[in-house]
Amino acid sequence: MRYLALTLLLLIGQSVLAQQDSIPPRKEGDSIRLQEKDTLALRQKDSVAVDSMPAKPKRRDSAKLQAKQKDSVSIRDYKIISYYGDTTVVDTTLAIRKDYIYNYLRKDDFELMPFANMGQPYNELGKSFSSAPYYPRMGAKAKHPGYFEKEDVNYYHVPTPMTELMFKTTFEQGQYLDALLTFNVSERFNASVAYNGFRSLGKYRYEEAQDGKFRTTFNYVTKNGRYSLRGHIAAQEMQSEESGGLRNKSQFEDDLPDFQDRAKIDLLYTNANNRILGKRYFLDHQFKLVNHKKDSTDNSPTTLAIGHEFSYETKMYDFEQTQQNDAFGQDPFLVPIEDRARLKTMFNKGFVEFSNKTLGRLSGSVSLFNYNYFFNSVLFTDEGVIQNKLQGEEIVVGGSYRNRIGPLYLEGSVDYTVVGELTGNKFDARARYTLNEGNSLLGSVHVSSRMPDFNYLLYQSDYRNFNWQNTDTFDNIRTKSIKFGFDSRSYGLLSAEYSTLDNYTYFASTATEEEIGLGQETAFVRPFQESGTVNHLKVKYEKELKWRKWALMNTVMYQEVTQDSQVLNLPQVVTRNSLYFSSDVFKKAMFLQTGVTFKYFTSYNMDAYNPLLGEFYIQNNEELGGYPLLDVFINAKVKQTRIFLKAEHLNSIFSEPNYYSAPNYPYRDFVIRFGLVWNLFS
């Protein structure tokens, strides 16, 4: 009911909202990722006049003027601006990539393996080490794929109100809804309100999951363009029951009729829950001290600006269990189990930026990062004292540079910590060279040094085995990565990334064979740091082949890991191939795409999942994978509405039940799901 009420509220609000004059187009970022995904103009009946009218237009010219105004608004005027300033436009087309991102994360999950229920963790099939955040995060990484970090929140620039609704069925007794309303309430002020939520009971018992994620954003630019402001507020809660996986694998793998109903399968525990709760306030503004334009058509004036970025975030991770379970160890400190980790961070960044058409954009900054990661009490053990908090501040100086020199685009940034113990340095450089209209060369370099996430350094639990402090024994993770790519309209996208990691940090179990046989492997999971160097190579190729109304979309990834100890496990080959047919039907009233998607990854020592920590950990006892995933889909587009119908994991009907998302956690069985994405323009 709350999803229905929210949907009605958004629709009613859109219909009564008075639209003001159009906002002048905000200067788009110089990023190489600037795209125009959809150049189709809105239908005239859905268009809104936004051009400024003369003070006293002549009566005989009013009809022509209104017609001109209606034709002046196109889908390209509805812009999405990322945290980094990259700009895309609202895309109402239907393509195979829309099918790939029609999921809980709303992004391509090619390198991820989802669990059986929506909102549960994703096992990683591929890794990239060039995009790690500079500051350590709280941890519980397996619970964060759907969490909106500040870099994940978008801002909007629209001439008229726009609503986007995404609906999708889940797994038993629930639905998924992602609703967005964006509008401008004055000439230069844009705002948005969004809610993302779902509930899914799941096919197995004790795996219910639900989310509620609210975001509101605003951005403002003065009439003369000297002062700009943007910000957002985000409140998020993600919670799920934790079953621990199968108690008896034979109930699943033997394919017995009694257990075709997955709710009858016995699970390890029935009384555990974990939760992520986060609130964030973000503000970013700048003022141009110098804004010299040669004329009104100069899109790259010489400017000198000062700015400030601020964010304050509180986050909490809970694990609760009403009774003790041997899977996490015997003789806990307290029962019921109520583990709670908290993190409060405040980030301030002041910067000065100079921009010139010839010299490019150059900026320098000073940042202050305050953190407080804490538990309820100090713990005294036989090995020593485990503190209840890590608290301090990091002072970082940095700079960035962007410029376009003919066909060459350059972008780089550097950060160096002058005060603090959590971080060291980071250097990023990216380049794109345009050979011609359809071919480009890409390259990037990443070098960084930072401590691992907070839960590696300090953790406390009511279970005795999950208490540690490694602030004096763990060193900075040192990462070096280099990446090359060739992006061609004719030949596809080929990329290769090579990374070296020193002091690679991971979770692993120290359980003996006897303890593993008793099902106690999870109880002995602890953080470790590898003394040797880990080398990772990833090569990825994407290409779509078309013939008349048929198309074949191929994505193939190859990985190779060299290491002294087996601490990084990844499949060697991952492939996804979609064969589909596209055509207009019903006298072009509907655009239809239907086909089949095949996904496969080679068997490997798939990471295991620990629900108490909300983390995956290394295991080298069992190889999983090596099975295909076959989906059949029928997608359609009617005006600005995209409809999706998919039969997921169709081959599970006739194949052996040996498909897992992680050790002890089966992947989902055959299921039919449907939904839609609907854009409304006022």
TrEMBL record:
Keywords of this entry: Signal
Protein name: Porin
Annotated signal peptide: 1-18
Source species, domain of life: Bacteria
Organism: Flagellimonas aurea
InterPro entries per record: Porin_10 (IPR025631)
